[in-house]
Amino acid sequence: MSASFETAVNGLIAELSSFERNRDKISSCRAALARLRQSIQNPIHAAPYVAPFAVNVSGDQEDLLYLAAGLFVINPIHTEGVSFGAAFRHLREKSDSIEKRFSMVLAARKEQLPDLLRHSIKLLGSHGLGLDWKMLLHDADRWDLVDSAVQRRWARDFYREPARSAN
């Protein structure tokens, strides 16, 4: 991963988080979040917020930044260190269809990810579950690696049994 993408991811997530934190105090934050919601249908609405960070990144990485901006407003819960697979594991007990949905994401081609992630992130948010946004962006950037390292890690996180607390 390039240092430029790392910088862009960190800057964008910090900016989006500040909008969310200040949404009730600052009207410009509410306006920014409203435009970002529109970016789910048309990514260009996110340009004022994404373009300043999308410097010296590849076109695919810029697309990921725009995607993240739209997804973040659907579910702004940031949970440090929680991968997509680990977040989805918490839904497994709630529905029989979760494993099938998760398998579809794992088997997806990179160009299918935006649509699948949009639905999945919304589902996580509806259950009050978050994930590590920086990790998600880095994982999506490495989705097509030959060794499928991202998919294998997500699968481990999803199927792993949660640690039991000592009584």
From TrEMBL:
This is Type I-E CRISPR-associated protein Cse2/CasB. It comes from Heliomicrobium undosum. The gene is casB.
